[in-house]
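Sample entry (218 residues):
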Amino acid sequence: MMKRNNQIGQSLIETIIAIFVLTTALTTGLSLAIYAFSSSSLTQNEIVAANLAREGIEVVRMMRDSNWLAGDVKGSSWDLTACSDISGKLCFPKAYQKVPSHNNYDLNSGNQRLVFNSSNNTWDLNNGNNYYLYLQSDGTYSGSANGTSTFARMINLSFNSASPYTNQNSNQELIIKSVVAWQGKNCTAFNSNQDLINLVTPCKITVEEHLTNWKDYK
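Predicted structure, serialized as tokens:
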């Protein structure tokens, strides 16, 4: 009888240990799954934000290049000038200004809102104070307020005229900062007109690029 009781006691202990091991394994597995899901969501937001920020840079570059091309089309009737800071050579110094009626791409310093007009497939920079981007039904992000808003994008433009730039005839360095932030877990909440450059949050990506009027000053 004593031997049988010992066997019953051992079986009970083994069962308790097995349950404990199984519970620990399930808890660990669940924790890993939650962590993996959270990391995946963070990575996805970072990828989307990086692409949106890069898009902002490329659009401003396109605007600068379009001003050059439009200036070439208009020729001397538009802005062909003898530029004193390059020994009187002819140049088109309005690289950062719109060229009517070809485009409306004025590149002014300050915080800007980048807007895509789907009706005529054109971009616009303006001083609007709603930096939210809305997820559209086709999977794209737009400033049109007819979808879900998770991301916000702000374009900051400034000009550097320190040497070797002369600050004459648009011989300046255009500094572009495309800042994208998003809302979510562990992210700092922000409103639609938030200055994203000064926003302190782990959920933000900034892409910076410097452009010059190299066409006339190469």
